[in-house]
């Protein structure tokens, strides 16, 4: 029997996940209501099938929510009553949300009797010939997502409640994306002080692995900075207001917001590109 999985939405990650599932024999549904031509093209290329919410709730065994963190609660609320009536799919939140937000999503779904799985994606969108990214799942219904392992995804079950997978994602992103924020902040500060070339030379001499990492991670960040703002705030909340280091992530959020800004971002991106030898 063909497994039917819903992936919402058909962004860069969602469409790549849909392609991987479809290539491994699943029927992949998605919702393209209100989506632009780029999303529709990605969905078509990935073999995803446009369907309305009721059709998704009545036919999918799992609904994977892969949306910007700020949209996660609204999507869960949208599907909660439909899932509660159909009783079929488990709702899997795969977004980089805070543990409190994840708890609220689980509560919204639980009020209608819907099953909720806390999910976290660590890594880049799936590519042909590569196993990743890793999909972590936690909560009482986490094992229901194990079927995704038979459909080409790298599934890892976390032995913990709702919130455990999200906590793992926040911790990991706090390190990796926090490091990107540190690099961007120091490159920009060095450039303002006229020390950019000297900083590059010192990194090349004493920290070549870091410099190689920055050559990949900083340019990759440009188009994602707007999505990382909410994630940095979620990480700050996760660290806790009682701990002064949480303010670092508030600052990182403001940095990413500025880089994403049409007014300020292009100039700062040019500075980083020049530092990295991209221009």
Automatic annotation (TrEMBL):
Phosphogluconate dehydrogenase NAD-binding putative C-terminal domain mapped to chain residues: 190-259
InterPro entries xrefs: 6-PGluconate_DH-like_C_sf, 6PGD_dom2, NAD(P)-bd_dom_sf, P5C_Rdtase_cat_N, Pgluconate_DH_NAD-bd_C
Alphabetized Pfam families for the sequence: DUF1932 (PF09130), F420_oxidored (PF03807)
Source taxon at top rank: Bacteria
Sequence ranges assigned to domain Pyrroline-5-carboxylate reductase catalytic N-terminal in this UniProt record: 4-79
Database matches in SUPFAM superfamilies: 6-phosphogluconate dehydrogenase C-terminal domain-like, NAD(P)-binding Rossmann-fold domains
Name recorded for this polypeptide: DUF1932 domain-containing protein
Species per Swiss-Prot/TrEMBL record: Methyloraptor flagellatus
